[in-house]
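Class, study these two lines:
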Amino acid sequence: MPYNKIFFEKVFSEKRMKRYFDLYPNDESRALMHYKCNLRLSESMYVPISVIEVTLRNAICRELVVMTNREDWYGAFGRIPELQGLLRYIEQAKNQIESRHEEVTTPKVVAELTLGFWVSLFNSQYEKSLWKHLRRAFPYMPKNIRKRKAVSAPLNRIRSLRNRIFHNESICWNLTTVNQHHREMIELLGWMNKDMPEWLAEIDRVPAVSSEIINNLNMR
């Protein structure tokens, strides 16, 4: 079966593929290669994104337990006016668990909460109530830049990249930007645990895949 423009537009939609075919109007095979490169780059990003998501979640939870002096730290949010708006995310997580006919436990609630929730804890409205506690989740962050914005900004960029990948959107256009986001992931991991970057490097394929794409498509 020919995997040509007609096939790709039928399977992935004409709108999604338009950007690739517009980029190479006289080279269909190159357009299709670019799309496949995008999928390969997205796939390679899964490892560092999943690692930073779990590492971040656990680091935050540890500090929230210390802050509230209870394992179900979210149970204390109702007593803190600035944090009461976060309770709706907790309820959504509990409802999702209950919809699967599972027992609601703290580990399950934590696992159900989205990356967007964890990243939102570093928003400006929580600077006074949370940052003084959550900054301890980054013990290896240089003191001269240990500010909420220095954590919030890269986390939001990583969250945006993650969402694009998980919705099969294009990321393989400006590899300089993609590689910068990847470096931010490694840096954030190092701020939380100094040994994580070295460990991740053993299984992280992003640099190799990015370099291969640059060579195949002659991109920068």
